[in-house]
Design a protein that fits this description.
This protein is mostly helical and 386 residues long. It is built from nine helices and two strands; from the N terminus they run H-H-H-E-H-H-H-H-H-H-E. Strands 1-2 form a two-stranded antiparallel sheet. Helix 1 crosses helix 9 and helix 4 runs antiparallel to helix 5.
Amino acid sequence: MNDAELEGFRPNRYFARSWGLLTRDRGWIKPILVMVAASLVPIVGPLGVLGYVVEWARLTAWGVASSPKQKNVQVGACIASGWRVFVIMLVWAFASSLITSVLLLVPLFGPLLLFAWMIFSVLLNLMVMIAALRATIYQRIGAGFRVSTIWQMTKSDIGGLMRILGMQLAGGAISSLICGVISIIALVGLVPQIIYYADYISEFDAIMSQSMKMNLAFEMLGSFLTTLGPALVVAVLLGAVLSMIVTMLGYTGIALWMRQFNVPAWGNEEDPLPTASPAAGAAYGAYAYGAQPQQTYGYGYGAQPAQPQQTYGYGYGAQPAQAQAQPAQQPVQPAQPVQPPAAPEPAPAPQPEPDPAPEPVQPAEPTSFSPIESDDRDAGENTDLS
């Protein structure tokens, strides 16, 4: 897949584009293996891994076509992002459990309503991912609880979310199938040993003492573990790696889906979506793949930079260029009043100039805060994934 296909928004090919972003750099498997090992660290490990995933997805939602960073990862900032997402998931899960409990108390129609809620929970899981990524874009937990805005985004393109859900289900099924095949192959190797010990017990059970039976039990256990152990270790490790890949592809798919809402044009977290947000499928939209540039924003694809921009490099290893122009969605600054020519006598009093209108708070840009962009200033907490 070429670079042009990884830019902008497209209402399809979520798996191909997510996979293309994930595997764009040589050595793309190294960050995944490091994250699998880091997830074994209690508490901070899973938080850091989750933060790393959503921070990469945040840049993807902004329109940056780059693979996961392999060097100079800011571990502390990743843990902070992971904590933010964890709180959002916890609150949404609590709300879902509360609704389930209430539906169980409804007489007569309770089971039917509960069944409908279980079906809706499939879409709810995707909404939680949207909420987590939206909070990461703003770097604020409160942005993940704007239910009306999240629901507006969800209902505008449910078909795209279903494609992402299908991608996740297919990835989980493939992962389970591979691990299951490895386990079955290992169990087949136990069949001769099971037959041997079964025949031995039936032949000598009557004359064996309790100590001999205990020794035989430990011998059987050691033999089974010796045969199954390596296969089980491979199955667990492979399952963890595949699960990590599916998680990264899922969040990246959500980020690609969110590009249709023109993330660089977002204002405050409580503001509605931009009115110029393109509709999904309508010529791929103004912020979509193959569309003409609509924004003069330094980091949005479709921008017209004043000077040639530096690339983000591979693995976010290069320093991105600074934004060259202000976002087009910001309010226009009021013009300064024209002063009349001064008369010789008397001099006119100076006219006060109106204060410029305040600019809206923009969501965090890729250069303002990103644990997965190169920043050698935090070398004290940086970790090399190479």
